[in-house]
Amino acid sequence: MNLPFQNDALGKLTLRLTVGVLILLHGVHKIFNPGSLDYISTLLANVNLPQILAYGVYLGEVIAPLMIILGIFSRIGGLLVFGNTVFAIGLAHRSELFAFTDHGGYALELQAFFLLTGLAVFFLGSGRFAIKPD
């Protein structure tokens, strides 16, 4: 059924802006707080991965969200957000994978949001309201 207010392009734009802005805030925080990168480097060293991979956080939390927000290769941006979140869960949140908060919510709600919305952008693309629509 086509409702008068149904608009797939606006829905995709809303999704892109939501996930893009929210994860970009994490990236901006890391830019202005370089100690965050040291923390990520330590986590990588603890699992015997090269510490240089810590710089990938800028790709996943700055470049990818900008791609998503602007609609420039947003499918690739969504995949980068997905991959960045998989790393974040694996490195910093493994112990919370099956945990709940004191209020009954899932302990990794934010990470699940980024994981699944990054995947949704990958599958849906940017839509009509983008610099490079697909």
From TrEMBL:
Q: According to Swiss-Prot or TrEMBL, what is its membrane topology?
A: Multi-pass membrane protein
One Pfam family name is DoxX
Q: Which InterPro entries match?
A: DoxX, DoxX-like_oxidoreductase
Q: Which UniProt keywords apply?
A: Cell membrane, Membrane, Transmembrane, Transmembrane helix
Instruction: Give start-end of the signal peptide.
Output: none
A GO CC annotation given for this chain:
plasma membrane
Q: Does the keyword Aminoacyl-tRNA synthetase apply?
A: no
Top-level division of the source organism's lineage: Bacteria
Question: Does the keyword Protease belong to this entry?
Answer: no
Q: Where in the cell is it found?
A: Cell membrane
Which residue ranges traverse the bilayer?
A: 13-32, 52-73, 80-100, 112-131
Family listed: Belongs to the DoxX family.
PANTHER family, alphabetically?
Answer: INNER MEMBRANE PROTEIN YPHA-RELATED, OXIDOREDUCTASE CATD-RELATED
What protein name is recorded for this chain? Oxidoreductase
